[in-house]
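Q: For a teaching session next week I want to show students how multiple molecules come together into a single three-dimensional assembly. I've collected the sequence lines for a complex. Could you give me the predicted structure tokens for the whole thing so I can convert them for display?
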Amino acid sequence: MRPFIAFDTATDHLALGVGDLDDPGRLLAEVDRPAPRAANTVLLAAMDALLSERGIEPADLAAVACGRGPGSFTGVRIGVATAKGAAHGGRLPLVGFSTLDAIAWRVWLAGQADPGGLIGVIGDAMRGEVYPALFRVTPEGLTRHGDYGVTSPQTCAAAWSSLREKVVLVGAGLAKHRMVFEEVLGDGAVVAESRWWTPDGAGLVAAAWAATGDNTLSSVAGMSTAEAYEKAHPGRLLPIYTRLSDAEEAERRRERSSTPANGVAGPQEGGPR
Amino acid sequence: MISAFITHSVVVTERAGALLAPLWRAGDVVALAGDLGAGKTHLVQGVARGLGVTDPVTSPTFNLLLVHPGALPLYHFDLYRLEEARELEDIGFFETIEADGVSFIEWGDRFPGVLPHDHVLVSIARGTDDERRIAIESSGARGRELARQWLDVLGSRGRA
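A: Of course. Below is the structure for the complete assembly, covering every listed component.
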């Protein structure tokens, strides 16, 4: 058994899970609870409590996995910074996954979506906007359609409505914008019970296993911890902000000719393009 | 809509804040403008008293945000020390003002375009001695409703 800890603080709901690098289907421990704007005070204590409960020492961990957002700007930074510290301190690989994927995986694991159907996750982006992500349920799991972004609820609802299919809707953005989706999607809107709107530990671990690209579990499959630390180095994991600050937007415009608009804020060198 | 009234002591400024208490709903936002010493904090102290806050309420100039538990949580911001609007993200500004309490934002007119559509802007201008001219400007349906209710309350009881 090689345990890894996964956590997410990008929403008002704190979630942690412990998986096993030697068994993708295994969930060793999990916990989730509301913690609005409190991630900085509760995350480390919650990690400690969860590991203790399962008799796992921090030194036993083989990797750290964290939610990269998109979500609360401060929440994402608290989670990613804590993950970088924990992984770097333990010389462990740091792998990431999207918070929206983790919520979709929770819905999938709970059997709340039909085979072949769609799951629409609506994150709350504040200021009247949402972070949407649309997933197709496949026999193997989930396939995400399109990239992460920020948009108005109306634009997102119209895009999903044009597919003329039922969409199982989850995510904290529904608390403010549910009516927009119900109006635009009509019978296509299948709003799940609110207990499925938040991430949980099982969803985090599943999303960590499913993620592809740099700094993911799949990128370090079969490696020793030391090799994996070099390959998925904690310094290289970047958050998914999608909404750049005004200053960053201005800088991006100045650099437009040479900088791809990848929707990922942060240093341009070393991160996923 | 802009309306104004004149007070002649900080006691009245505080009382004007306290009279607002029964009107609040989660997510309400009041921006405060006015020079140092104009009495922005006195107004918030009154609001705190009305909400049953027992903490001492001081200006959050250096803290940027002070949170006071009460009948509704009172989020008391002071943007004086921020240099750029993007720093608002660093202090969790947007997620806080859209949360479960009422927000009072000193120097709330510092960055254009960051206040929610629905808000009230209270500008306090110093007159002679202790005289203060308090102007109330509102935006959005909820902002207008709050401003109207506050002026109603002040009209009937505020000058006592």
